[in-house]
Amino acid sequence: MLNLLRMDLRRMFRGKGLYICLGVLMFTTVFTFMLMYVIQDPEMRQFLINHGMTISATSGNIKKSLNSTTLVELFHQTNVSGGLLPVISGTLAAMFICTDFDSGFIKNILSVHENKWDYILSKSFCLFTANLFYISATFLVSLGLNAACRGFFSYNAAGDMLFYIFSIWMVTNGFTALILMVCMITRSKAAGIGGAFVLCSGLIVLLLSSLLNLFGAGDILNYSLYMNLAACPLGYGGLSTLRPVIVGAVFCMLYATAGKIILAKRDV
Q: Transmembrane ranges (predicted)?
């Protein structure tokens, strides 16, 4: 399995897909940070209004609100809470996994690695590494931008930052395992990418939430991946803040196991 993992990591980090997806996340990170920074400046605010942007709050209220915003909170609102991070990582997963099926390379892999777990675990660990790469790179950019702006957004404690990064990484891994299972079922890039946009964006969860709330059963979705990502604690605050980590780990195991069973049942 380690040989297969090394091959997958080499393919992943030498391919263009990883860096194209990273570019999207970098763009949203830089754009949001700079927009929040310039919007509190009265002259820049007036410039934006003159060019068609609607800003209802006053400059003083905007500055007061932004001064109370932490760096982790801004990062969370930019790429994480709305589901952009799992959508991007899910899209990468679909393209990476389904390439094996489209090219027929999966037959060569499974002829050498008869244990289907080798394939599932190799793909999972490779994609989990890519997720950590995305989160770390974009967060470091946020730190760099904030340092360049002389700490415009207040810093969280180092331990809280690391805990937050670990938490969203675990939940994002759960989404990745979900797309892996979808790809084992459909073996189609289009279906995998479509699944990433529909399932990882929280669209299904939000629709179900509206329906279940009619019957007073909406709380069950508090244990879904999307809800734990959207409401991920911004720092460690006791055992209750470990829920996203536990939920992410459980779904990783469930979806990976389902993917292995499906791969073993279907002909390649």
A: 20-39, 80-99, 120-141, 161-183, 190-215, 235-256
Q: Is-contact 171 248, C-beta < 8 A?
A: yes
Q: Give me the chain's average pLDDT, please.
A: 87
Structure tokens at 83: 């589901």
Question: Both tokens of residue 108?
Answer: 């060569």
Domain residue limits, the chain: 2-21+70-265
pLDDT in tens, 190-247: 999 999 999 999 888 888 888 888 887 778 888 999 999 998 998 888 888 999 999 9
Closest C-alpha among 185, 162, 196 to residue 86: 196
Tell whether the torsion through CA atoms of 109, 111, 113 and 115 is positive or negative.
Answer: positive
pTM for the whole structure: 0.90
Token pair 């069973």 in the structure block, residue:
261
Alpha helices for the chain (secondary structure H):
2-14, 17-38, 42-50, 59-67, 71-75, 84-103, 105-112, 116-148, 158-186, 189-199, 203-213, 225-230, 243-265
Query: For the purposes of burial, counting CB atoms within 10 Å of the CB of 53, is it exposed (0-12), middle (13-18) or buried (19 or more)?
Result: exposed
Q: Which residues contact 241 (CB under 8 A, 6 or more apart)?
A: 163, 167, 233, 235
The answer to whether 247 and 174 are in contact (CB under 8 A) is yes
Pair 162, 237: CB distance under 8 Å: no
pLDDT at 216: 79
Q: How far is CA 247 from CA 116, 131, 162, 175, 224, in A?
A: 25, 17, 18, 11, 7
pLDDT for residue 147 is more than 70:
yes
